[in-house]
Specification:
The protein contains seven helices and three strands. With 156 residues, the protein is mainly α. It has two domains: 89 residues, Multidrug-efflux Transporter Regulator, Chain: A, Domain 2; 66 residues, no CATH class.
């Protein structure tokens, strides 16, 4: 079997069919159409979907994912070298996320910088709600963890 129907691609990837159609509309996937207008995805779409799932899980936006996927060849199935090349594009972002998560893990039992002032002893004390003047959100959290949810967030 050289191609997958939308249902087969959804079953194999773990994404809903609506997510596949959404990612196609956003230009992250492409499908050919049968004479009857039904989508047919190349089997290589499964690797793209796995990449999208991993990238979304670590917080990459659709624009960042699109930019990475645009680096892949469109005339052939991407090779391991192709995937290695694009993974380097977001290595720094992953390292920032890892550092932020470690900081959150290490500080979670004392304070997460929310500004609530409810803890008697907070490692990231916020007397006089100084953090409130810095902007919305938990200002003492590491930057990657306090950025607003991307507007393009879709359930996966």
């Amino acid at each position: 079997m050289n191609s997958l129907t939308v249902g087969e691609a959804a079953r194999r990837s773990g994404f809903a069919t609506s997510a596949l159609r959404f990612y196609e509309r956003e230009g992250l996937l492409s499908a050919e159409r049968t004479e009857g207008g039904q989508r047919r995805y190349p089997r290589s779409v499964l690797r793209r979907l796995a990449f999208i799932r991993a990238a979304r899980h670590v917080g990459l936006t659709l624009d960042e994912i699109r930019a990475a996927l645009d680096e892949l060849p469109s005339s052939r199935t991407p090779t391991r070298a192709d995937w290695t090349r694009i993974s380097k594009l977001w290595r720094e972002r992953l390292n920032e996320e890892i550092e932020a998560l470690v900081a959150l893990r290490d500080g979670l039992d004392s304070c997460i910088g929310c500004g609530c002032l409810s803890l008697k002893r907070c490692l990231m004390s916020n007397p006089g709600d100084i953090a409130g003047s810095l902007g919305p959100g938990a200002q003492y959290l590491p930057k990657p963890l306090r950025e607003p949810e991307p507007k393009d967030a879709t359930p996966s």
